[in-house]
Specification:
By secondary structure, the chain is α/β, with parallel strands linked by helices. It has helices at 48-66, 108-115, 124-127, 136-146, 150-155, 164-173, 180-183, 198-204, 244-251, 310-320, 328-333, 373-399, 416-426, 438-450, 457-463, 476-491; strands at 4-10, 14-20, 26-33, 45-46, 73-80, 85-89, 99-100, 159-163, 177-179, 189-190, 195-196, 213-215, 238-243, 260-264, 268-275, 286-291, 299-306, 343-345, 363-365, 406-409, 430-433, 466-470. It contains 16 helices and 22 strands. The model has no long low-confidence stretch (mean pLDDT 93). A seven-stranded mixed β-sheet has the order 16-17-15-14-20-21-22. It has a five-stranded mixed β-sheet with strand order 3-2-1-5-13, with helices on both faces. Strands 4-7 form a two-stranded antiparallel ribbon. The termini are far apart. The radius of gyration is 21 Å and the shape is globular.
Amino acid sequence: MTNYIAAIDQGTTSTRCMLFGHSGEVVSGDQKEHQQIFPKPGWVEHDSLEIWGRTQEVIRGAIKKAGIEASQILAVGITNQRETTLVWDRHTGVPYYNAIVWQDTRTKEICDELSKEGGQDRFRPQTGLPLATYFSGPKVKWMLDNVAGLQAAAENGDAIFGNIDTWLIWKLTGAHVTDVTNASRTLLMNLETLDWEDEILEILGIPRRMLPKIVPSSDPETWGATDPNGPFGAAIPVCGDLGDQQAALVGQTCFSPGEAKNTYGTGCFMLLNTGTDIVPSESGLLTTLGYKFGDQPAVYALEGSIAITGALVQWLRDNLGIIQSAPEIEALAKTVDDNGGIYFVPAFSGLFAPYWRSDARGAIVGMTRYINKGHIARATLEASAYQTREVLDAMQQDSGVDLQALKVDGGMVANELLMQFQADILGVPVVRPQVAETTALGAAYAAGLAVGFWNNAEDLRANWQVDKIWDPEMDSQKQADLYAGWKKAVTRTFDWVE
C-alpha cells in the first residue's frame, strides 16, 4: 500500500489541503477561499470559525480526489499565514474576536507608544524584530485592551492565544502548541532561548499562561493525533508546523547557509538561510527562525517582508474590476511595451522591509493622459519585482553574500512576464522549481521527517527539480534608470498618515 503525507496550507485568502508522495509529487489537492473582512480603513480580519470550516472541507476534498484511504496518510503538517492573531476560550473553542490579520494596522498607536522608550528597535536584540503593526504581540495587547472581559479571562487561564497554526492544531488534536518559526513572529519570543520573553510579556500586559508551548517545526514526539471522527476520518499524527515563508524555505530545500528563496503570494517574502548564526540586521530586515528539526540546533534566517504583491493583483480584480481573474493580468500587461513612466507603490498597509513605515500609503505616480489599463497592469507586476530588489540589496548588505540565483515559488511565478522582469531588475537568474507550491511541500517535509517517511535533508534535496530559469536580459543602464525611478516613487508615499 502506498503511503502519503498531508499538508494543510492555511493562507491569507484561502485554505488548501495537499497530499504528497515520497518523491515530493503532488498527489491531490483541494482549495477554498474565505472572506476578507474590512471593518475600518487599515483593519483586516478573518472569521476563524469559517477558516476551520474551510479546513475541514478541503481535507475531505483532497482525500476524495486522491481516491485513497485515510490510513494511507502517515502524518499531517501545518503551514499558515503568520502573525494573524486569534484568542479563544480553551473550554468552548469559541473565539473572543475575529482573527486580526497580519496586514492590519490598528496597533500603530500601541507600537508608537512602546517605541517612545528605546525606539522602534526596542525589542530587536531579543526578538530580531522592529516594533511594527505586522507582529502578533501588539495585536494580542489590542484585544486585551478592547474586548470586554478578555484580560480577566486571560489571567485566569480561560482565554488562550495562537496564530492560525496553533488554532488548527488545537482544533485537530486539542494540543496548545506553536513551532519556533511562528513563535518568532509574535515579538514575544527570545531568539536565543526559543522561549517566551517575560520582560516583553510584562511590558505588553500579556499573561504567560495564555501562550502556547513552543515546539520544534518537525517533532518526532508529535503533538497528538487527529480525531477519527473528524475530517481525516482516522487518527493521524500531527507533527509538522512551519510559518508559510519558512515552509517555503524548507520546500525549496534551502538547507545551506547562503541559500535563499522568494515566495510570491498575498505578500512577498525573501528568506536567506544564515545557519545556526543569529545575524542582526542593519538594513531593515528581520532576523527570524528558519526551522528546527527535532533536537537538532535551530536554523536562523534573514527575512525581507513585503506586505502587498499578489494582493495588488487581487485589488485590481475585486476593487477596480480591471481584470476578471488574476491570470488575466499578464495578457493585459503585454498589451503595452513598458510601464509608460508610471510606478505603483502598494503601501496599503504601510511599507514593510526595508522601510518599516506604517505612515506610508499606496500611490500611483507619474500619471499622464497617455496611461491606460495595460500600463497599470504592468506597473502592478513590476511593483513586486522592484520591492524584491530592495530586499535583496538589504540582504546582501547584511550578510555580505552575493546571491548567485534566486529560487522562486508561489502563485505569481506562473506569470512569465513578471519572472523575466524580476531577473532583469535583479541582474541574477530566477529559478522556478517543478513543484512551485513549495509552502505546502515544506509542511509535508516537516511532518514526513518526524515519522521517518523521509530520513534527512539529502532525501529532500534529491526531490528538488528545476522547471525553468530566466536569465537577465536588460541593459544595465536601463535597469539602473528604472530602479532609480522606483526609489523616487517610494518616497512619495511617506508621511501620509499623521
